Amino acid sequence: MNLKEHLGDHILSPTILALAEAVKGISQAVKTADMGKVGTMNSSGEEQIAIDVQADEILRKMAEACDQVGLLASEEMEGEDKVGEGEYAICHDPLDGSSLFDVNLSVGTIVGIYKTNSFIGVKGDDQVGAFVAVYGPRTTIFFTLRDGVNEFTLIDSEFVMTKENIKVAEEGKMFAPGNLRACSERKDYLKLVNYWCENQYRLRYSGGMVPDINHILIKGMGVFAYPGYGDQPNGKLRLLYECAPMALLMEEAGGSASDGQNRVLEIVVKDLHQRTPIFVGSKMEVQRCKDFLA
Ligand code: F6P
Ligand code: MG
Is the CB of 273 under 6 A from ligand 1? Predict the structure, then answer.
């Protein structure tokens, strides 16, 4: 089944189809983009490479052209912009994992979809949908419109369903331990990592949140962690652009996502670039993180 057939007359079909078209453009750009830094910084002070800027532009054009979209925010932008009269709002990390780009590892795009005229004050639970693209040896997308998660693969310029109703098991011995540097100060995290090692969990960590969480969804088990420490107690990952969409996808697949205490989807966005620690994946594995880090 192709994407259009699957969406049928769903109200958000035009937005998802427009995002899928943007992904085709980014996928092409990923194959040919310049590897160098462009000398500009994003709003969090991180150096941009050409593909960050290109992917952001492709998604902006998509948002401007799509009648359903009225508001846009991006990890690469400072604020939120009115881009039309539509009632939906999209926020995105246009190219997650861009530090992996020059070494030819998988990167991705993460999108949250809301019905709002400002992202300030929303929480992840308000999302009407979440959408992710993975640019690996194959380009895939997975998304939810709060009716489960399905994966589609780009084959001959068409997205074809390759995995239906993705489900994540209650537990599973697979770990993706982000920000291991935190172990230098946080003995609780070190103990958790030791638990995973001593209990023969399988390590699956690429350094990119998109491929790492995609791994959990496709294999159907495991946990991804990115705690904070020291002067970055909330870690690095952004609530609006990264964690909230991933949390919705994981919950829709039967898993969970926590900041160590609260459901990620219940955290209120007070700042567009707000960061949060995250533990996401199989329910019992997320609970174990909470227990160790309490
Ligand atoms: O967007 C941030 C990101 O690239 C994530 O994809 C990834 O999980 C994380 O950074 C890795 O961070 P670090 O390289 O600091 O461990
Ligand atoms: Mg990112």
Answer: no
Domains and CATH numbers, the chain: 3-163 (3.30.540.10), 174-293 (3.40.190.80)
The pLDDT tens digits for 134-193 are: 999 999 999 999 999 999 999 999 999 999 999 999 999 999 999 999 999 999 999 999
Q: Are 14 and 113 in contact (CB under 8 A)?
A: no
> Does the pTM exceed 0.85?
yes
From 44, 47, 98, 99, give the residue whose CB has the most ligand 1 atoms within 8 Å, as the site to mutate: 99
Q: Which ligand is nearest to the CA of 225?
A: 1
